[in-house]
Amino acid sequence: MAEFSSKLTHPLSYTFASEAIISNSAKKILITGASGYVGQHLIASLVSCGISISGGSTTDDEQQYKVYCAYNSLSTFEADLNDLLQSSTLHPTIEGVYPISNVDFSQSNCIDIIQQAVCGGGNEGEDQTKLDAIIHLAALSSPGYCEKNPVEAVKVNYPVSLLKLNVPNIYLSTDQVYEGTKQYYKEDTDEANPINVYGRSKLEYEKVLLGKNVPGSTILRSSLILGPPTPFQHGCKKGAYPSFLQFIESRLQSSTPTDYFVNEFRSVVHINDVCRAITHFLQHALSVNDLSEEAKRTKVYNLGGSTRVSRYELAMEVANHLKLDTSSVNGVNRPTTGGGVPSPPDISMNVDKITNELGLEKLMGLKEIVAATYK
Q1: Which range of residues forms the domain containing residue 350?
Q2: Could you please report the per-residue DSSP string of 182-246?
Q3: Which of 33, 198, 12 is nearest to 92 (CA)?
Q4: Could you give the number of structural domains in the chain?
Q5: Mean per-residue pLDDT, 8-28
Q6: Coil, helix or strand for 175?
Q7: Which residues contact 182 (CB under 8 A, 6 or more apart)?
Q8: Of residues 241 and 273, which shows the higher confidence score?
Q9: Distance CA 124, CA 120 (A)
Q10: How many CB atoms lie under 10 A from the CB of residue 73?
C-alpha cells in the first residue's frame, strides 16, 4: 500500500454529496465510523491509492466508486475532509467522497439517514440504498465505557439494522472476543469466549453475520491498532492521543513516571496493515458476483501484527527508537482483581491465515511498527 500524508499538494475541485452530480455507473461504498482513527486513515488511503479489482470485467479507469463516509458528531470532520480533498489528487477509481453526519447506531433512525444520503430515499419496498459494500468501523471501543453502559454498547456494536442494506460487510471486530487464557489464538479452531461487555457485544454482530452469511462479507478481529497521527488536521477526538504510541511518547518526553503492564499481551498491528487488509477484502466484496459459492461465504480473520507484545515492551521500544530516557517507564503486573473491567491477559493471535490471504511474508512486528510510525 502506498504511504499517504495529510500534507498533499495537488488541487482538487470538491463538492459535498448534495452538490455533486451523481452518475449511475459508479459503485457505492459506505464507511461507518468514518471520523475515527481507522476511518480517517482509510479515507486518505482510498483517495491516494484507489480500488483495484483484479480479474474484473472493467479496467480501473472504467470502474469508479463513490465513498460515503458516515459519522456521528465530530465537528471538525467535514472541514478536515474538505481540506484533505482540496489538497490531493483524487485517484481515478474514486469518483467522490461524501460525508453523512449524525449517523448514531444507538438511534433507530440511523439507516434512514444513510438511505436518504446515498440516494434520496425511495418508494416503500424498493432497494433504496443500492450500496455495493459496507466497511463497518463504527463502534463503542472503550471497554470501560461499555462495561458501564452495556445497553448502549450492544446497540452500537451489534447494529442488526445494518443488515437491512443486504450488502457485503467488512466488519472490524476485536481480539477481545478471545478469553485470554492462552497464546496465539487461531480463528478457525479456538472458540471465542469474551469476558467483558465490549468483547461480547462485538461477538454478537460476528454471529449474526456468520448466521445470515451475507455473501462476500469478512470479519476482521483486530488487535490494538498503532500508527502515526491521522491525516485529518484535527484528528478524531479532541484531546485524545491518536494511538497508544503517541501517549507513550508524550510521557517519555515529559519524563512522567508511568506504569505499563508486563503481564498483558496482544498482537499489536500497524494502521497501514489494517488499511491494506480492509482494502483487500473490499475488493473481494465488490467482486462477489464473480465468486464461487464457497468463496462468497463469510470468513473470519485475525488482524494482528507478527509479534506478541506487552505494553511495557511497547514503551521500551518507543523509548529506544526515539533515544529517550527509560527511567520513567515502570513495568508492573496488572492487578488480578479490581480495576472495574475484566481484561483478558493474553489475546495474542496467530495471524498466518490473513498473512497468506494478503500474499505477504509477514505483517509488521513491534520494531517495524514503531519505525514506520516515526519514519
Answers
A1: 17-373
A2: SSSB-TTTSPP---SHHHHHHHHHHHHHHHHT-TT-EEEEE--EE-SPPSSTT-SSTT--SSHHH
A3: 12
A4: 1
A5: 46
A6: helix
A7: 190, 346
A8: 273
A9: 13
A10: 10
